[in-house]
């Protein structure tokens, strides 16, 4: 309970400060810390990230920290990628070890991006930047559907480096994309983590506390420190999940598939 409560506080604070970071800690917490199988951890992670992202999105909208045009350039392909990636996992195309390894590699790439210094915007490269946002959105969506992460650790660097948004605006825009893509992936996975739902209470309680703390600190922390701290968390998460990916992963069985509670069919 203390582990979940503390993890929830940190996850909520990161979402409030960065518009990202929740799934970076949540997936390793569920898989490594609580030894949940990925079939349970992925939809539970999506559910928690969705709820906390929506809770942070409301004040971000009120404070006008959402850039709608970049959100569309990233969000539409992210929705398509979420649907596609979750479908691959549901059909067994993506193995559990591959899910974790993809997450670790993406976290490493995002850490490198966050440590880079954004270059001055160039009007001649505006079209190229939009194409890169489309590609990035598709990749983020695939990662959301495959690994059950919100994808903010890739969305925020893309908005900062490609859309030339300041960190505060990028974090608010990221919350909108995270909410939409997480919901899409959760629906596409097609099953509800019924056995793991009791874990939601301490996670969401801690997340609510973290959100309140993060919203108080968001205007007091420098952008440079946010980027550096974010990159450090990405490196820790990449190492943790990479080591977990090298361990033998339990394979899904037909019995396990029957145990999972599925969405009611129309």
Question: What does this entry look like structurally?
Answer:
Helix content is 75%, strand content 2%. The protein has 266 residues and is mainly α. It is globular and about 45 Å long. It starts with a helix and ends with a strand.
Uncertain segments are 120-124, 252-266
The count of strands amounts to 2
**How many H/I helical runs?**
11
Separation, N- and C-terminal Cα atoms? 37 Å
CA gyration radius, whole angstroms: 17 Å
Write down the overall geometry.
globular
Fraction of residues in H or I helices: over 70%
Fold blueprint:
Elements: H1 2-18, H2 22-33, H3 38-62, H4 68-91, H5 96-115, H6 126-147, H7 152-161, H8 167-189, E1 191-192, H9 200-217, H10 223-245, H11 254-259, E2 261-262
Antiparallel strand pairs: 1-2
What's this, in brief?
The protein is built from eleven helices and two strands. By secondary structure, it is mainly α. The C terminus is likely disordered.
Give short descriptive properties of this protein.
75% helix, single chain, 11 helices, 266 residues, globular, mainly alpha, two-stranded antiparallel ribbon
């Amino acid at each position: 309970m203390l582990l979940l409560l503390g993890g929830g506080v940190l996850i909520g604070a990161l979402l409030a400060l960065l518009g990202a970071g929740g799934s970076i800690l949540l997936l390793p917490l569920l898989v490594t810390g609580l030894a949940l199988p990925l079939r349970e951890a992925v939809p539970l992670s999506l559910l928690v990230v969705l709820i906390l992202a929506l809770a942070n999105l409301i004040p971000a909208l009120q404070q006008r920290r959402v850039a709608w045009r970049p959100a569309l350039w990233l969000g539409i392909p992210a929705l398509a990628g979420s649907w596609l990636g979750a479908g691959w996992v549901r059909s067994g195309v993506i193995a559990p070890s591959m899910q974790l390894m993809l997450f670790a590699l993406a976290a490493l790439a995002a850490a490198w991006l966050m440590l880079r210094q954004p270059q001055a915007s160039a009007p001649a490269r505006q079209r190229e930047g939009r194409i890169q946002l489309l590609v990035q959105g598709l990749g983020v969506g695939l990662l959301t559907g495959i690994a059950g992460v919100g994808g903010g650790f890739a969305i925020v660097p893309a908005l900062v480096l490609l859309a030339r948004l300041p960190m505060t605006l990028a974090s608010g825009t990221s919350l909108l994309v995270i909410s939409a893509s997480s919901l899409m992936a959760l629906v596409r996975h097609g099953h509800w983590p019924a056995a793991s739902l009791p874990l939601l209470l301490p996670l969401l309680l801690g997340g609510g506390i973290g959100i309140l703390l993060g919203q108080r600190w968001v205007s007091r922390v420098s952008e440079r420190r946010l980027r550096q701290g974010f990159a450090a968390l990405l490196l820790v998460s990449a190492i943790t999940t990479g080591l977990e990916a090298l361990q033998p992963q339990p394979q899904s069985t037909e019995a396990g598939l029957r145990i999972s509670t599925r969405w009611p069919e129309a």
